[in-house]
């Protein structure tokens, strides 16, 4: 389908331009991260400048909630019907930690791991969801964190690579 | 290439449209299939499958992790949380397998669904245990492990079945895709074939049009060559007459370049400005009306003008042609000034040649005429010499001089005749004359010469004789005299006879002049009638002559509508024949008996002689003086008129051609004046006595004529006739058969003899009374009176009966004029009275004598 071929290319170009234009100011804008107080849901390590626990940036639920979460509505191939996902856009998370790598390695509780290139860190791109249909997600329910792409609004996100990157039961990110 | 047949030309188009139709269908089909494929691709690109195999295998792995953790936790209670986590992971996996979109199809498969329900059952049972406190969970671990072991088979089946089902699904999807692709390939192949076919068609069309274009180009090239090499100017204009094309010949002829000429109006540019308007309204008016020229308008001669203003005649051929850009006129124009000049040159040359011929003939005529004058002088002088006393030798010499002079005159007359023929001035006359009398005259004339050669000479009728005929007596006499003269010349001691015979048609008389002389060789018979032919014989040389005699005779015969020819036997004699159309007619008035002409010397007369030529004047004067007349001389017409004005003459002899005032004009003046000689008889003296000229003399008021050279006898006769009150109404010369008698005495004598005395007396008186009345009434009758014709006719009849020839003729003339519907000149009517008076007088005189 032409739409499915042309649009991603255009979108990609637009995003690349945006990333390049915004990368410098973003780093300057980053605030110091507060140390986590509750259960740590996510640990970011690797090529980052903002840390709160040692060389890592650790996030608990409260910290995540303070980072202007967004909500997207989309269907997924793993669930039944339209789902509401609430979380922090990946790009914002990466800015928050001052990520300077070109990709990140995301690993799940079950040790599933996947690489997400920096080209995916875009506005209207994937989010690190911590609520599904307004409720926290348990491990049985693919929680506590799930990287969700807006599959429905962007056909480019309807490929197997993207599905593979949609990691659930996420708990670690290493920026490389 | 010009298409020979229509279908052939159409075929490619028919095929092409069919191919196009097929192609459109193929494209539609391909479009449809492409849509299907794209949908398929879309489905594929959505990749609803995720990493299915991995997910299914992972369920197995995660279940094993869970069981392993269960086993380890039985020995190490600190690992209970690990058990819980592994359970949760497996639980999450199963939730995915149960609820995930991609596994929906699997769930309909019982082989998959049965083990799944078993696993679900286990999970549901395990959840309360897993969620219970550590102590309780620890206690339940062996049971959990046992149950887990029991369903491990189901988990395994679940993943295996899932794998099998997905393999099947992807197989069938691949098959479907392959089929679709095959169909597309087939359609594409069709499309390709169609395209190839279309290409072939287009290729053929392209070649066809290429060939046509080449042909057109070649034709155009040929046409251009024709136009460019044409010697004629070719000018093409549009419907408005604006020049579109102007070929090299046109540029050469008119001096304008093509660029200059184009866009200009053809009529304004190529024709003189003064003619442009008349051309537009005339010869070239079809141009302005933009209609096709009609057949007669297509070719015309016209005056054209070139750049330098030279006007020249041109031949123009023009027609209209239809072109894409509208109607055109194509004109071919040829400069024909050279041809015109040549034509003019030819005409001039021809005119000059003709004029030269005429001048020669005229010169000949003038020369012979001029020769006659001194010759007449000589002959006249010789005649006068006889009045003196001569010794015998002198008289002999005079005889010879006279005969030589006559011979010379004959030759000159021959040449003059010939010249007249050449000049085309001879016209036959038609007058009634007596044939026997003419033949008598011929014999009489030729008799002295015949006697010299000791020949007997005579004429006779063969068959029925006749008397009066209508024809040209003078020319007939001339021809016969020539033939007889020849016969006499070439015969010695022989006999010459003229046989006269009416041919069977009753309109032709054949005269045969037969001699028994030396004859003519067969070979010479043809050429003797040619001009200037004399036969080389001693006699011929001896006889002399111009050799024109027979040539003239032939011409005369032809002019009179007859034929002439000869037959001969050398040594035996010759026969010359002449066939002439003559019209027999009733014997007309008979002129006075011949013997009356040889009259005694008339009484001395007082005469006026008007003659410019001194010799002629001298001769005439001497002749007249010798006869005892008194002669007054005038050297031109004007002097003659002066004399006539102041003196009464008995008669005037008037020459025709004179300087200052010629004879006829002088006569008119005399007649118009009131001098003592205004009514005197005037005798025309002329060398050229053509009938129409005689009529002219008569019109002028001349009463008689006498031809030059003057003959003493003839002169006496004419003078006698003129002075004894013989009819002046008709123009007479007594020596000529044209003389019209006042009274035919033979006729009246016959009438008298037939009627008896008493009857004739009665008739005589009534005729006189009646005619008196009629003539009186006619004299002042209006010329358009309706019954005039009847009266005239009746009167003419009675006059004929009483032998009044002149009066009858005058009346007949009037009648003819009336019949033709022309007005009768009142002078003619008025003249009747005088004629009647004289005729009556003559009749009374005859009666008295009788």
From TrEMBL, chain B:
Chain coiled-coil ranges: none
User: Mind telling me which InterPro entries this protein's record contains?
Assistant: CheY-like_superfamily, HATPase_C_sf, HATPase_dom, His_kinase_dom, HisK_dim/P_dom, HisK_dim/P_sf, HPT_dom_sf, PAS
What protein does this entry describe?
Answer: histidine kinase
Query: Does this entry carry the keyword Metal-binding?
Result: no
Catalytic activity, EC: 2.7.13.3
One protein family per Pfam: PAS
Name the source's superkingdom. Bacteria
Compartments annotated for it: namely: Cell inner membrane
Q: Which GO terms describe its molecular function?
A: phosphorelay sensor kinase activity
For biological process, the GO terms are: regulation of DNA-templated transcription
Where does the Histidine kinase domain lie?
A: 366-584
Sequence ranges assigned to domain PAS in this UniProt record: 219-272
- Chief place where the protein resides: membrane
Note the topology in the membrane: Multi-pass membrane protein
Q: Please give an example of a GO cellular component term from this record.
A: plasma membrane
- Name the top EC class: transferase
Keywords in UniProt for this one?
ATP-binding, Cell inner membrane, Cell membrane, Kinase, Membrane, Nucleotide-binding, Phosphoprotein, Transferase, Transmembrane, Transmembrane helix, Two-component regulatory system
Q: Which residues carry this modification: 4-aspartylphosphate?
A: 655
SMART domains annotated for this entry? HATPase_c, HisKA, PAS, REC
PANTHER family linked to this entry: TWO-COMPONENT HISTIDINE PROTEIN KINASE
Q: Which reaction does it catalyse?
A: ATP + protein L-histidine = ADP + protein N-phospho-L-histidine
Location of the Response regulatory domain:
606-723
Transmembrane regions: 18-38, 181-203
